[in-house]
Design a protein that fits this description.
The protein is mostly helical. It has one domain. The protein is built from ten helices and no strands.
């Protein structure tokens, strides 16, 4: 009974994170791991994420900033391959701590950049996009945990809220679709998990609708603060386990 409730909650939060508050997405990963075994949770979650991605892309497609996507996607594809190869050699605890440290470092960079001109051009360096794209690819393949990294990158780019959501929506729709054959090869996605995913679709769509309504009511500055706070809390949660 509890596992069913947690899966349903994950579906609702997935939709809300895709269209309203992206920082909430990191809560879905540990919640799903509480509902089903950690390895199975990766395959259970991926189709749910893609449903949310499709809705978000459909609604926010005109707001995507493709220059950022072209910087990230080639490196993210490489990271997916690296993550696929690394599955089984890097455990969940090591990956969780690594992601947490990276996200906190990126948030610190954004905070410092708002207070000094010395770091103004750093996020626009070619190596910055390459590094973040690679890290996002590795972490999304291994644990569906690239959300905080992408949030930190988009914060560093200082995108308005609609461009923030639209760019993130396209990024995750593309990389999650690319992950499907790798997950099928590893038997992470199975017929029984897909049936559960199908039952969750109404809750995902409800979450997406709530996210759109919420985003319209949140001022730009409040949105930026909420996303930063959620990303920081997510990073601390990753570090503490």
């Amino acid at each position: 009974m509890l596992s069913n409730f947690l899966i349903g909650l994950c579906a609702l939060l997935t939709g809300l994170a895709k269209t309203g508050l992206p920082g909430l997405g990191v809560l879905v990963v540990p919640l799903m791991a509480m509902a089903v075994p950690p390895r199975e949770s990766t395959g259970m979650l991926l189709p749910m994420l893609i449903v949310g991605d499709i809705f978000a892309v459909t609604y926010y497609h005109r707001h995507a900033v493709w220059s950022h996507l072209w910087r990230l996607l080639p490196w993210a594809f490489a990271g997916i391959v690296v993550g696929w190869l690394a599955l089984g050699t890097v455990n969940d605890d090591q990956l969780r701590v690594f992601v947490g440290v990276i996200v906190l470092a990126l948030l610190a960079l954004t905070w410092l950049r708002d207070r000094t001109t010395a770091l103004e051009h750093l996020p626009h360096a070619l190596w910055f996009g390459a590094l973040l794209g690679l890290l996002a690819g590795v972490t999304t393949m291994m644990a569906n945990a690239a959300g905080p990294i992408m949030v930190a990158y988009l914060l560093a780019m200082r995108l308005p809220k609609n461009e923030f959501i639209g760019t993130g929506a396209w990024f995750f729709f593309i990389v999650n679709a690319v992950k499907v054959p790798f997950s099928l090869h590893l038997h992470l996605i199975r017929p029984d998990s897909l049936w559960i995913n199908l039952l969750c679709v109404p809750l995902i769509l409800l979450g997406c609708w709530l996210g759109i309504k919420l985003l319209k009511r949140i001022p730009e500055k409040l949105f930026a603060w909420l996303v930063q706070i959620l990303a920081a809390l997510a990073a601390v949660k990753l570090l503490l386990g």
